[in-house]
């Protein structure tokens, strides 16, 4: 009986360490591009009459255990030229603890959304870029999250800006 209790305690401790590691590793993710870190949605905005792109928006949705909200800060680096974008909206939602949401990314995680509207001169640079990198920060964080676009994402962005 004592052996079974010891094994049970060991299993519970191991599960607790594993869960704490997963929470730590999720909020301190090591990735090589933006879409591996969070959900992104880049869309060109076209004039319906001329069918030409007049603008574009980017939505970044990040799910994390840390409750720190996003700061109103966004920098895009296009071929080593940095642009600070001021047209930003941010929102945060607390995690859900509902059993019906247990299998989704929202369960136990804070949802942070950053919505950026780009000025036309930046879009022209993006449409011809070889490399694009974005930076954003969380309140109370010592460093910015700075990640490049993957080749596939950059090509998608360029496709959204074809008529620019």
Walkthrough of the structure:
The structure is a single chain. This protein folds into 2 domains: 30 residues; 129 residues, Immunoglobulin-like (Sandwich), CATH 2.60.40. The chain starts with a helix and ends with a helix. The chain is built from 4 helices and 8 strands, in the order ααββββββαββα. It is elongated and about 80 Å long. Helices cover 29% and strands 36% of the residues.
User: How much strand?
Assistant: 35-45%
Give the topology string: H per helix, E per strand: HHEEEEEEHEEH
Strand order of the largest sheet: 1-2-6-5
Number of domains: 2
CATH class of the largest domain: Mainly Beta
- Quaternary structure annotation: single chain
What are the low-pLDDT stretches, counting only 5+ consecutive residues below 50?
A: none
What are the key terms here?
single chain; 164 residues; alpha+beta; Immunoglobulin-like; 4-stranded antiparallel sheet; 8 strands; 29% helix; elongated
């Amino acid at each position: 009986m004592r052996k079974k209790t010891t094994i049970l305690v060991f299993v519970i401790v191991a599960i607790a360490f594993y869960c704490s590691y997963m929470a730590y590793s999720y909020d301190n993710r090591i990735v090589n591009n933006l879409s591996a870190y969070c959900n992104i949605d880049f869309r060109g905005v076209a004039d319906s009459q001329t069918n030409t792109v007049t603008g574009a928006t980017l939505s970044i949705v990040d799910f994390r255990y840390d409750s720190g909200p996003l700061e109103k800060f966004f920098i895009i680096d296009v071929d080593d030229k940095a642009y600070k974008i001021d047209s930003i909206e941010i929102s945060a939602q607390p995690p859900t603890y509902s059993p019906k949401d247990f299998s989704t990314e929202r369960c136990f995680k804070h949802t942070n959304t950053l919505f950026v509207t780009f000025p036309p001169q930046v879009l022209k640079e993006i449409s011809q870029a070889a490399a694009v990198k974005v930076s954003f920060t969380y309140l109370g964080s010592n460093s910015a999250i700075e990640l490049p676009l993957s080749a596939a994402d950059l090509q998608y962005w360029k496709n959204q800006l074809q008529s620019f």
